[in-house]
Amino acid sequence: MRDQPDRITCMKTQSSGKKNVGFVKVTTEEQALAAIKKTYIALKYIPKKFKTAELCFIAVHWDSRAIKYVPKKLITDEIYFEAVKQNGRVLKYVPEELRTVKLCLVAVQNDGWAIEYVPKELKTMKLCLAAVQNQGRVLVYVPQRFRTTELCISAIKNDIFSMEYVLKRSQTKEVISTLIKQLETDYFTLPKNYVGRLLSYVSEKYRSEFKNKIMEIYGIDEADINYWLAYCQRLLVKKKWPATPVIDFYSIAIRLYPKSPELYRARGRVYQLIKKEKKAQADFSKARKLGHYIDDKAKK
């Protein structure tokens, strides 16, 4: 059924086992109010004479996505603040020139991922700290100058995998100690197969210490390492991950398990993807010496 400008979606009916949308013409303020409480999209079709600032505020209060259909002339700071209090990510619907530090702070306190829509010039240490305390992995959107030891520790406490975005220069003993404590805390909920992933984020200086802790807590073995490495390679092939961290991780795994032909073969394939044929052939050669391995060219 096509949308009609003087009619709005306000009820759902059941017909032939499928949900259909019923349209009812709005003729009173009460009907308009009832409609926006049913679905935020109703605000788009309510007649102008019933679309007041008060009604728009109520619509946004019921569902922050209604902000998309509030007429510009009815928009107020109060409506914007109400919207981001309900859902921080609707900050993206706020015109950039109207995104203030205060509004952005409220948004990231509700949902840390809202930092993606915060203009660069409005990103302060206070705002970035509030964001990572809400969602650790939004550290990826924090400017490098703000990725201090304190901020990185806060991110790791919220989400251990935010370690991926901790700069090497920010990896201090305090950061690694926090990572280890968080690993011990998350022991029962963190899948063992993903623990090897953390190892690739730790700098060479602390890698040995962290590796020993992983071995102590999880008893991680070569099979666990290979699980993550295979996942890395799938991402690389799909061009969702750059080659360098994948190669680095294979190199770490090879140091841990120097007699594994599968690891040399896998790293060789990555080298082939980035057209480093000499390094690829060197890894393939090593793999053949270590085990009963036949590379793809030999199979043909």
Poorly predicted spans:
1-23, 292-300
**What's the architecture of the domain at 221-300, going by CATH?**
Alpha Horseshoe
Order of strands, main sheet, comes to 1-2
From the N-terminal CA to the C-terminal CA, the straight-line distance is: 57 Å
Number of strands: 2
Number of helices: 15
Percentage beta strand:
5-15%
What is the CATH topology descriptor of the domain at 221-300? Answer: Serine Threonine Protein Phosphatase 5, Tetratricopeptide repeat
- Fraction of residues in helix: 40-55%
Radius of gyration: 27 Å
CATH superfamily heading of the domain at 221-300: Tetratricopeptide repeat domain
SSE string: EEHHHHHHHHHHHHHHH
Secondary-structure content class? mainly alpha
User: Class of the domain at 221-300 in CATH?
Assistant: Mainly Alpha
Rounded average pLDDT: 78
Biggest sheet, open or closed, and with what strands and sense?
2 strands, antiparallel
Shape: elongated
